Amino acid sequence: MRKINPHDFKVARRGTSREINRQIALNLIRAHQPVSRADLARLMNVRRGVASLLVSELLEEKLIFEGAVGEAVGRGRRPTFLYIDSRQRCVVGVDIRASRTYILVTDLMGRQLGVVSSFQTNRDVEVLIQELARRIKQILTDYKEVGACEGVGVAVPGMVDPARGRVVHAPTLSWRDVTLRDPLAVALGIPVHIENSGKACALAQLWATRSDVVASGNSVFVSVSDGVGVGIVVNGELLRGRHNTAGEFGHVPLSIDGPKCSCGATGCWEAYISNLATLSRYFGRELSDPRPRDTETASFSVEDLIARARAGDAKALAAINSTARYLGLGLASIINALDPARIFIGGEITTAWSLIEPIVRRALRERTLTEFGGATEVHVVPAEDHPRLRGAVALVAAPAFAAPMVA
Ligand SMILES: [Zn+2]
To answer: How far is the centre of ligand 1, averaged over its atoms, from the C-alpha of 272 (Å)?
Structure first.
């Protein structure tokens, strides 16, 4: 039940129901392709003629195309199949992290077209923008066959104002009120969209078409990397809050006298579970000290730590198990606050899931207030699915499929 805002509303026009039906048709083709006109009419529960009219419009706008011809049923005509037109149009996804920045090219449906490339993140935003522009241009030249680039989506490890295209605060990069979108768009000559990485991940999950991804119901995405990003989906929409900063569970304290956090406070959830926190626990050093101690610690990643734990290094296993416990305690807070249908977790720590799942679940049950809260589904999104890059891609691709705002 949503209240109609009497100060800001959109009156239904004559074409409104048609606009909604058109988006429904587009989304059904996207989810079920390839489909014939008859399939579409059946899926929409409308007459064949109604479906055909919508299809003609979508074909005219080049949003879909007619592909292979199917087998005739009985004496009828052989049906042609409809597909979302993702040919010759690509999207670039960028995942900026405090340590490294990653780039991926996909088609409009989010299918990966090349290899993921990465480079060390320069914290000077002007230098970073120049390097990003140079690398994206190079990639688009290398993959000429992917066609025109529809846009670049950038996932940022911090709070973002997407309307102004600015990063409001990114603690792990020490960025405050930084302009990112417009200078990158000018350097590339391509539209750029920016969003908080947790929100971008949640968006990608919401728009996933893979049959093994359950996207219904309210959900929360927790992305653990150099920091912690959280995206919340309520009623099929991202929860943004007044200033687009809703969901900063990473900076909700687990303990007020805990370790120092990148935001300047102490005891934030992030300061217990980020990759940096896990590594600091292993090396027994302060999280707030960003200087690598020696060449080994400088290049040593959480994956390396997990490999050591699997090989029997008790200290490595203890460091990971502590992270698992804190991860579960923080998830319990999210469940107590939001009661979501499911939680998705992404990040390198998930490669240790078979080791840590029982510890995460035990901590989660310990601090949730009801039995069903304790049984909340937790799904791991594997690192090889590149959830943050897919989130960045969804920033460009998803708006074309979104429902129109009515009333
Ligand atoms: Zn913090």
So the answer is: 10
Q: How far is the CA of 122 from the centre of ligand 1 (A)?
A: 22
pLDDT digits 0-9 by tens, 33-59: 889 999 999 999 999 998 999 999 999
Listed residue (230, 264, 265) closest to 159, CA to CA: 230
CA dihedral 289, 294, 298, 304 (to 10 degrees): -110
Taking the alpha carbons at both ends of the chain, their separation in whole angstroms is 13
Residue 206 in tokens: 């919401």
Ligand 1 centroid to Cα of residue 275, in Å, is 14
Confidence tier at 292 by pLDDT (50, 70, 90)? very low
pTM for this structure?
0.89
Question: How far apart (Å, rounded) are the C-alpha atoms in residues 13 and 222?
Answer: 40
Query: How many distinct helices (H) and strands (E) make up the chain?
Result: 14, 15
CB 404 within 8 A of CB 23: yes
Q: How far is the CA of 261 from the centre of ligand 1 (A)?
A: 5
In three-state secondary structure terms, 223 is strand
What spacing in Å lies between the alpha carbon of 238 and ligand 1's midpoint? 22
Positive or negative, the CA dihedral 321, 326, 331, 336 is: positive
pLDDT, tens digit, for every residue of 301-346? 899 999 999 999 999 999 999 999 999 999 999 999 999 999 999 9
- pLDDT tens digits along 141-155: 988 787 889 999 999
Tokens matching residue 401: 């499929």
pLDDT, one tens digit per residue, over 81-138 is 998 887 778 999 999 998 899 999 998 888 888 899 999 999 999 999 999 999 999 9
pLDDT at 293: 47
Give the β-pairing of 100-107 and 117-120.
antiparallel
